[in-house]
């Protein structure tokens, strides 16, 4: 009688080992599956939003006489304004003669020596942005100009 009882015990222990192996396999499967789902959700959330399409208002290049102690000096400059909305773009395009006139007045008061230096170009960008603080027309929508970009800049 000891033999059948021993075999039944071994069978029971073997069955428990198989059940534990199956249970642990299922637990590992669900754990890894849940972790994969979180990682894919993180990947979806971490994808950067597409940046807005930049809007530029191009100002055709022009030449300006500069102030100089050494004779005639010229500045050939082409630039673009980065704007934040189509309303600003449309307004500047409609009033381009006024914009160009303001730029010519600003640039003609500059000296070649200050515009040759990088600091002079940075200061000029800030002054160009400041040109639009004074209204062009009344009433005028709020202009959203975020940057001035030089495409041509030759001092002779």
Automatic annotation (TrEMBL):
InterPro entries reported in the protein's UniProt record: FliL
GO cellular component terms attached to this protein's record: bacterial-type flagellum basal body; plasma membrane
Membrane topology type: Single-pass membrane protein
Localization in the cell: Cell inner membrane; Cell membrane
Family: Belongs to the FliL family.
Residues spanning the signal sequence: none
Matching PANTHER family: FLAGELLAR PROTEIN FLIL
Protein's GO biological process: bacterial-type flagellum-dependent swarming motility; chemotaxis
Keywords for this protein: Cell inner membrane, Cell membrane, Cell projection, Chemotaxis, Cilium, Flagellar rotation, Flagellum, Membrane, Transmembrane, Transmembrane helix
NCBIfam families found in the cross-reference section: PRK07021.1
Coiled coil, from the record: none
Protein name: Flagellar protein FliL
Organism name: Salinicola corii
Function recorded in the entry: Controls the rotational direction of flagella during chemotaxis.
Gene, per the UniProt record: fliL
Principal location class: membrane
